[in-house]
């Protein structure tokens, strides 16, 4: 126990890190370096009782609370200048019950832990496409993945959760126990409590899949967008892809396509024949072990870069918009190497399993349009880079919006988990847009489970009056 925390409950079993601690810098670091905040206390909790004690201590000392899962939210939703409840150290586990085809997953787990544990039994669930991302934030805010075309969102596959509430009590949430809370956490994010454990549905999964990157240049964009639009109209249940417009190491803009087909190489090449017939300038797509699929993008999504990001959408793959965006990415990348550089991800996770669900089943907005993630990334941790990165992102967002005027306000706002303003002063207003028609019902749930707004770091919901 640090000497300056002599009043912290002695029953606390985990680790407490304060600014004097040698591990402090590591403890407050986040995936995006600009998401770091100087916490007074980082509490690495060991069990649910520790979570309750940390909540009660913070509340009695008037400290803001942030909950950290994988630490990937670039807006700083898992950081605070108060007390961080960090789940990753002791809650990064996945226990699989192969008979029931379910997994008990710790609230601080990363997707690598889940993917590896489940595939041992030939099983898998919908998870993030970069496997060091946290299960907690990704699931509570939505959860698109390569298996979405088969099984919907990550949050559609949560069967049950254990939640530590603002008053420190520990409850189960499922369709039969506290169903209002179960409804709220599946899309309402961290607004209701600390999820110590998720129970996920698993599915039979073949051990190898067809996946990897193929690269297309500007001259191939029209053909690529045409076959993508055809595929998007009829993607089936086994395919997904992410197309990233960025500038390659040689300074030339390219479209990098991360293909996924849940089958053999022969089946995948046949399925995507029109894409390969274009003749990509590089083709690294092959049959690989399932557990490597969500590691394919890890090398470009490493920890410790400066990042500003924002989601938006477009109605469908469409050449004119893609070309405009592609060329603008190339222009903006003329900035110095250390300065912000853009990357735009057109995320083609087929939506039919997501939009087929009753829209009232969870508060997540099931927009029928493909999501686009706009990123600005930089090396030097300066306010100037943050300012320029933000400006660059909004420049590109403006371009995409201007070409997609028929999008609704909510669709234009994009995926909540991609919003760098999720914790800014405007986030409370934006929550109404992000949660759309579900906002009023979420306010009722908030009033019941967290009337004092103890949890308010991610699109804070105001309790009903
Ligand atoms: C490299 C990268 C790849 C991504 N890929 C995908 C993708 O494929 N699909 C997709 O849908 N999204 C993706 N995302 C977005 C991702 O869903 C969000 O960044 C998400 O917030 C990450 O969750 P986390 O637990 O790592 O983050 P954190 O920063 O730890 O948490 C984010 C929010 O969730 C809350 N939270 C986390 N764990 C818990 C918990 N156990 N209980 C209560 N609240 C909790 C935090 O308090 C915070 O509000 C990606 C993001 C990055 C940076």
TrEMBL record:
Q: Which UniProt keywords apply?
A: FAD, Flavoprotein, Oxidoreductase
- Source domain of life: Eukaryota
Gene3D superfamilies for the chain: 3.30.465.10, 3.40.462.20, Uridine Diphospho-n-acetylenolpyruvylglucosamine Reductase, domain 2 (3.30.43.10)
InterPro entries reported for this sequence? BBE (IPR012951), FAD-bd_PCMH (IPR016166), FAD-bd_PCMH-like_sf (IPR036318), FAD-bd_PCMH_sub1 (IPR016167), FAD-bd_PCMH_sub2 (IPR016169), FAD-linked_Oxidoreductase (IPR050416), Oxid_FAD_bind_N (IPR006094)
- Tell me the cofactors it needs: FAD
Pfam families attached here? BBE, FAD_binding_4
- What are the residue boundaries of the FAD-binding PCMH-type domain, all occurrences included? 33-205
Q: Which family does it belong to?
A: Belongs to the oxygen-dependent FAD-linked oxidoreductase family.
* Listed PANTHER family: BINDING OXIDOREDUCTASE, PUTATIVE (AFU_ORTHOLOGUE AFUA_1G17690)-RELATED, FAD-BINDING PCMH-TYPE DOMAIN-CONTAINING PROTEIN
Protein's name in the database:
FAD-binding PCMH-type domain-containing protein
